[in-house]
Every structure is written in C-alpha cells, then in structure tokens.
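Q: I'm writing up a methods section and want to include an example of the input and output format. Could you take the sequence below and give the corresponding predicted structure tokens, formatted cleanly so I can copy it straight into the document?
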Amino acid sequence: MTGVAIAGAAESDLGVTGKSILTLQAQAVTRALADAGLSLADVDGLATSGVSRFSATQLADYLGIQPVWTESTFAGGCAFEMYVARAAQAIEAGQCRTVVISYGSNQRSARSRSLAGVIEDHTPEAQFETPYGPLYPFSYYAMAAQSYLHRYGAGRESLAEVAVAAREWALLNPKAFRYGAGPLTADDVLSAPMVSSPLTTADACLVTDGGGAVVVTSLECARDLPRPPIRVLGYGECVTNTSMTSGDDLTVTGAVRSGQAAFARSELTVADVDVAQIYDSFTITVLLTLEGLGFCGAGEAGAFVSDGRIRPGGAFPLNTSGGGLSYNHPGQFGLLLIVEAVRQLRGECGPRQVEGAEVALAHGTGGILSAHATVLLGVDR
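A: Here is the clean output for your methods example:
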C-alpha cells in the first residue's frame, strides 16, 4: 500500500459540448481542484494525454502553471491508471507534492474518432493486416470475440449482458449519455446492425465529448483537505501487443499481469473488491478482463455476468456510471473509471451507490488489447 491518496475528482462537460479540448481539460482540472479544496497554485505535477505530442506542456501553458514533474505517456485508454502509479511514485520520492491527472476530448463535436487510434502503414504488422481492410479498432476486438466464443462455446448473449447491465446503471446516472434512452434488452443488442461479426453497434462504446481529472497528493496532505481521502492501495501494468498479428492468444490479455501486480502490492484479493470499473470499449473487453484479473476462470465470464450479477442490485457492481457503453466515451475512458471509483468510495453516487463500498478496482485497456493497467483504491480507515 502507498501513502498517497486521491483528494479530488471531477468531470468536464459531457456529451456534445461544442467546446475545445483544452477548454474541457481546464473545466475538469479546475473542478477537481475545487473538489479537493485546492487551486492551480497548489499544483506542481501534471499528467495528461491526447492533446498533442506535447500534451503536458501544452496544458500547463494553457493553465498558466509551471509543474516540476510531468507525464504524458500515450498508452491509450489505460494511460490514466498508469499515471496514478507514476504520480504515487513521484510523490513518495519527493519529486512533487500535488499531481493533477486530466483528460479531455471533443470527438463527437469534431465528428472524429482519431484519438481511438490509427493504423500506420509503415508498421511491421501492416503488411499482414492492412490489405484486408480491418476496421480499427472494431475488427480487431471482433476477432478476439470470435475466438473467445468459438473456444468456449459461448453465445453472443454473454456479450449482450454486458451492454444491458451498463444501460441499467446509466439509467441511474443523470450525466450518462443514454440516461433518457430507456432500457436495453439482449434482443436489442443482438439485432442491432452488425459491424464486424460477432459485434454489433450495441457491443461498441459511445463516441462523445468529455473528460475528467483527479488530484493526487500524499495521504498526510489529503487528510487536511475537505473531501474524504481515497487511498491508492495498489497498481500494476502490462504492455503486450501492438497488433493482432503479434498476439499469441486473443483470449488472454495483459490484465493477468497488471492485476497480479496490483493485488500483490495492495495485499488484497479479488474477494476484497466491492465495486469494479472495467474498461468497456467493447463488450468482449469486459469478459476478457474479468477473466484476466481473476474474478473468474477462463471461459467462465459469460456465466459470471449472467442472472443480473453485474446489474444494479447484483452481487458484483460493475461499471456503475454506465461505462463507455452507455455513460460516456471520449476516445480514452480510463480516467473516468477512476472518477467513478472515487465517487463510489465516498458514497456520492445517489441511486446507483454501492452500499458499504470500501475497495474499488479501476482497470484500463489501451489500443487493441495492447496495454493494460490496474489500480486498487480504498477508503481511509
């Protein structure tokens, strides 16, 4: 366990905002600092991704601050779980005192999914993949799903349940993009337009504007601030493959190693997790991650999520904001997983609150099952 805590958390405007990326970033940062009872003058560390190749430099300049520590590693949607680890290490090493981790994207307003990734024709794997015209990243996740269903004899209904549960949580979250859309059924998912077999449009995450920020500082400092500190208990990460060409087994992800490291560092087990926020870029991402993290065995995720287990009121609260499938997905979703985890541990989630939640897991996935990072958070006992 670390002596570091999250002291503030917030979202920017969400949905269709018409605002610039830096405006959304500034909204998230200033709201998270206000939540923590701090100001920009207190920030000496900054971690962000997605603005440009000089993301941290550009955002710092925009905010008018001069941090002594920055991080802008681009690893897709899991970068922000990685940033929590880097921030904790930097604070404990005395490199900085207060780190803001932030993200913002205006993908929907810009009518673009560019931040979700692009295929570079000059990469080594391009000669084996590009000629077949795969949809990035849709076709790649579809290959993983097809492999999974074939290997374990599972049905598409297992995938559909992930989307159905996410919608039920979203209907309890007024900030969710699908808040007023009504419930989703398994038949709705299965009969939605097929994009890349076996995945339909309803198996894929949203495309929205949005962003978020969290404030990380020492546990000692956090205890003097207005909000209840949420401790960083453990973290781990693993990078596996750039493309599907280099993946040995599409049904086994780097979540295995990132999860093992996070649980070992925290001295916790899967049985200690009260609420989980798992990246749901596609429905298959959730099934593979649940198995990788050890919540169930290989090929058992379909049964694990069945019978309402991951829906509101179920035994395993999962993606309680509505997730990337029904709440919000601005290209990279990992930071908003952490924001929801913090709010659940503070008891701030109203009708979707998981009663008695003391330990939360946030797991990000980047690229095409390429990069993985796990963070365990807990209340300050």
